[in-house]
Design goal:
The chain has one domain: Protein tyrosine phosphatase superfamily (Protein-Tyrosine Phosphatase, Chain A, Alpha-Beta Complex). Helices cover 39% and strands 12% of the residues. The protein contains six helices and five strands.
């Protein structure tokens, strides 16, 4: 695996004219990356359609648990493409299993020229964790650096302790996955043989 060098795109830098954070901004969505927004459910309510359209939103990731479904719901299914995830803001909730599908959803949107809003209820824990995971895997970042990058743009983020632990674990998971994807069949065979203690004869 030492022969495989992973390469990642450069992370967009913070705008010099970025707004100073104020408390009411937590009720709005912020653009974290070009085309990727993070916010609370209040930024995706029916009354906010003009703002969503002004920013060019085409895709929305709605993160909620079943008991929230009556008040956190897709309001514009005829206008935007939705990905709805059933996830509780609970430290024992397994969120890693949802990371691949959310990354695919975001990538497909951005590559087609679309823009994505990721929201939960408050836009602080669940949705923030998914945006952090996306940035980690896309740009090859550690959790603490991705967290700091997102927090520069949405200061109020605060994933719960269980989500933080899973994001820290995800560093090794996504790096291993990407490394295997880049390895040739022979490199994979060599790596498996080394880890199993057997010898490969070439």
């Amino acid at each position: 695996m030492e022969d495989v060098k992973l390469e990642f795109p450069s992370l967009p830098q913070c705008k010099e004219d970025a707004e100073e954070w104020t408390y009411p901004m937590r009720r709005e969505m912020q653009e974290i990356l070009p085309g990727l927004f993070l916010g609370p459910y209040s930024s995706a309510m029916k009354s906010k359609l003009p703002i969503l359209q002004k920013h060019g939103i085409t895709h929305i990731i709605c993160i909620r648990q079943n008991i929230e479904a009556n008040f956190i719901k897709p309001n514009f299914q005829q206008l935007f493409r939705y990905l709805v995830l059933d996830i509780a803001d609970n430290p024992v909730e397994n969120i890693i299993r949802f990371f691949p599908m959310t990354k695919e959803f975001i990538d497909e949107s951005l590559q087609s020229g679309g823009k994505v809003l990721v929201h939960g209820n408050a836009g602080i824990s669940r949705s923030a964790a998914f945006v952090i995971a996306y940035i980690m895997e896309t740009f090859g970042m550690k959790y603490r650096d991705a967290f700091a990058y997102v927090q520069e743009r949405r200061f109020c983020i605060n994933p719960n302790a269980g989500f933080v632990h899973q994001l820290q674990e995800y560093e090794a998971i996504y790096l291993a996955k990407l490394t295997i994807q880049m390895m040739s069949p022979l490199q994979i065979e060599r790596s498996l043989s080394v880890h199993s203690g057997s010898t490969v004869l070439l």
